[in-house]
Amino acid sequence: MIRFPSRRAVLRHGLAALLLAAVPLAQAAAAPLKVVASFSILGDMVRQIGGADVSVDTLVGPDGDAHTYEPTTADARKLAQAQLLVVNGLQFEAWLPRLVRASGFKGRTVTASDGVTPRRFDEAQEAGHGHHHGHDGGGDHDGHGGDAHAQGGHDHGGHDEHDGGLDPHAWQNLANGVIYARNIAEALAQADPAHAETYRSRGLAYAARLQALDGKVRAAFSAIPAERRRVVTSHDAFGYFGEAYGVQFLPVAGMSTEAEPSASELAALVAQVRREGVPAVFVENIQSPKLVEQVARETGAKVGGTLYSDALAQPGQPADNYVGMFEWNLRQLTEALRP
Ligand code: ZN
Predict the structure, then answer these.
(1) I want to staple 85 with a disulfide (CB 3.0 to 4.6 A). Which of 40, 109, 145, 322 is the partner?
(2) Do residues 315 and 213 make contact, with C-beta atoms less than 8 angstroms apart?
(3) How many A from CA of 32 to the centre of ligand 1?
(4) What pLDDT is attached to residue 65?
């Protein structure tokens, strides 16, 4: 026989049932750690290492440009609830400190690039504006002594606010990716000690994948003659890549996507591409292809395709994760540069 319980009984038993069903201790401990990553590449790394033990929100999403990003109130809400914030550092996310203050974020912050050897902006600045010199062993340094210039009071014309700054694009070297993975795994372990060992072992496995890919990338480029290993890209995002894998990148714009080249800088680049027979130019997923295509038209260099520089591809595409992004870029570059 069915009896309808009293209202008070419903409240009492209902509440007890609710407590038992919704938040028994084991389940409360299993609630995923709330993590916010500043941009898509970090978001993927956190997912790879955190697995089902974390829920990840990314501020600057796929194909997004973190250099020029303008945070939203939705970002502030995500941060307010987060327990861990993962940032690149190296002066990449200039808009982030204000957002963090405004959001009332109370969690921990980890800088994924901690421990990376940074490239100085002023070395790269020269490479970005008509004084192209690679750090690639390609040997073509235009007579510039990079180190001497890096320390000197060199005039960077209009970019003095960046003097002494750092090249943020450290993820473009897989050896740095390994450092990122280690920092992220350790930060997850500290923020969520119940799963510390899982994070650490997933971090190690992921780092091993990155290390294996690093070897594959090195082998692929060393099979291409050094004088062919030169490409034009939109902005100066591949300095770490170039150093690590022996490829000279000639960026149309500077370190940030904000800086547009002057007409004379563009003309100097076109002249250099012609003079040195640079085989290919690449557009980037985060930027307009306009200037790069102009360089291709004026020089006869072929357009090699799209490189993923500062953001992953949309979900479902090969470059929608960090490993996939590297494999994609590797394939695009080697196919265009192979003699
Ligand atoms: Zn960039």
Answers:
(1) 109
(2) no
(3) 31
(4) 96
Centroid of ligand 1 to alpha carbon of 195 (angstroms): 34
* Torsion of Cα atoms, 125 then 66 then 57 then 83, to 10°: 60
pLDDT band at 260 (very low <50, low <70, confident <90, very high): confident
Distance between Cα 145 and ligand 1 center (Å):
25
Residue 127 CA to ligand 1 centre (angstroms): 14
What's domain 223-337's architecture? Answer: 3-Layer(aba) Sandwich (3.40)
- Residue 22 CA to ligand 1 center (angstroms) comes to 44
Domain boundaries for CATH 3.40.50.1980 within the chain? 29-195, 223-337
**pLDDT tens column, 276-313:** 999 999 999 998 999 999 999 999 999 999 999 999 99
Give dist(CA 254, CA 130) in Å, integer. 10
Token pair in block for residue 290: 């306009």
Does the domain at 29-195 match CATH 3.40.50.1980? Answer given as yes
Report which residue type is found at 287: Q
Ligand 1 center–CA 30 separation, angstroms:
37
Measure 148 CA to ligand 1 centroid, in angstroms. Answer: 25
